[in-house]
Amino acid sequence: MERRRVTTGQALAALGLVLLGLVVGWLTAGDGGDSSDGKGAANAGPTDTVEGVPVGYERSREGAVAAVVNYGAALGGPEFITNRARRQAMLRVAATEEVAQEYEKGAAGLAELADTPLYRAIRRGESAIYQGVPLGYRVERYNEDEAEVFTWSASVLGAGQEKPQVLFSQRRTTLRWDGDWKLAGGSEQDGPTPALAEGASASSGAEFSTRLRGLQGLRYVP
User: Fold this and answer.
1) What are the tens digits of pLDDT across the range 54-85?
2) How far apart are CA 26 and CA 49, in angstroms?
């Protein structure tokens, strides 16, 4: 049977569907890492970390937004795609049981995504860029039991000499209170997508890996 090739463009689209929050990543094959301890301001949270997931949010609008952003950062790591056991452990902390079960139903698709050139390069410690930037948010609705947060973000992915690609996407993430804010669902669509500035051109994969080596990822807390 012929093996279907998953392109970087498809991986970008799939990544948007995989994450329930914002993607916050890093450049691999360097001294990358999280330059923030993830502590929230104004007591919104988080207050602790369990299974690599920041937890402990205030039961408030600010706490709900902090949960969306920090959960997205935690679930944005490559191991969430490539390591099923780690993914299950993280989802037990960050999501409702229903959401965790939905991910299990899609395990085959995640395994296919994990076998794309990008994730193979990450596992081998080769040069790859896996970076996401939250550009803004809006609280669509809120009460003490449930919240919906709208986010707009940009994700940049690429491996080896392949020219990295960027995807702009918007997402509505639903949170439910169960002793803490939990991811309870969401929907996503592409865009809005801007054009490159006049005179700008896309850089090569080699330029990305050379000039951005050792770049550290940031975690944003409103």
Assistant:
1) 999 999 999 999 999 888 888 877 888 888 99
2) 20
Q: Where are the domains of the chain?
A: 8-211
Q: Give 88-144 pLDDT, tens digit per residue.
A: 999 999 999 999 988 888 888 888 888 888 888 877 877 777 777 788 899 999 999
Residue-by-residue DSSP string for the chain = -PPPPPPHHHHHHHHHHH-SS----EESSSS--BSS--PPSTT-S--EEETTEEE---SSHHHHHHHHHHHHHHHTSHHHHH-HHHHHHHHHHHB-HHHHHHHHHTHHHHHHHHTSHHHHHHHHT--EEEEEEEEEEEEEEE-SSEEEEEEEEEEEEEETTSPPEEEEEEEEEEEEESSSEEEEEEEEEE---PPPPTT--PPPHHHHHHHTTTPPB-----
Two structure tokens written together for 87: 């993914």
Answer positive or negative: Cα dihedral of 56, 61, 62, 64: positive
pTM: 0.77
Chain centroid to Cα 74, Å, comes to 7
Inter-residue contact 60 to 9 (CB < 8 Å) = no
